[in-house]
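Need residues for this backbone.
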């Protein structure tokens, strides 16, 4: 399969960015694994790897420091719009996120943004429901001790 065109769409703040510098490391019908450098330079975050779980509606990312050591895992709840003729994915961030620190601490963040987006009309009730159900599914995987299965594609392909 050829490399798809990937866009990251955010609701808050509203933006749609072509991820032109991301490198596709692996792709099949269920996942896309990418390597990337941070779009906006930060002291802590330098680069990372992401696995887009197309059917589940989340993106799991390994955030890394400049020396390659891991900061934490960052999981975005997302939705996808796919255009087959151009092989283009627009990945919409549905705002709720889960951060998993190296010691295993799990933190759910940005739930307030779901309310803000829904109240301002950026997120309709169906999308809000989809976001919450996907967040619940991801948390069930994490709490069942199966998060390593979601890490596996990144770990397999990040050193290629």
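Answer:
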């Amino acid at each position: 399969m050829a490399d798809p065109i990937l866009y990251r769409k955010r609701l808050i703040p509203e933006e749609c960015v072509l991820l032109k510098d991301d490198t596709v490391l692996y792709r099949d019908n269920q996942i896309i694994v990418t390597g990337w450098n941070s779009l906006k330079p930060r002291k802590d975050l330098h680069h990372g790897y992401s696995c887009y779980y197309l059917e589940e509606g989340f993106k799991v990312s390994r955030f890394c420091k400049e020396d390659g050591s891991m900061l934490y895992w960052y999981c975005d709840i997302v939705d996808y719009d796919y255009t087959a003729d151009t092989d283009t994915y627009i990945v919409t961030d549905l705002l709720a996120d889960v951060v998993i620190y190296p010691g295993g601490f799990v933190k759910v963040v940005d739930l307030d943004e779901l309310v803000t987006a829904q109240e301002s009309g950026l997120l309709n009730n169906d999308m809000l429901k989809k976001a919450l159900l996907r967040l619940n599914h991801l948390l069930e995987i994490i709490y069942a001790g199966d998060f390593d299965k979601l890490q596996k594609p990144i770990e397999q392909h990040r050193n290629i």
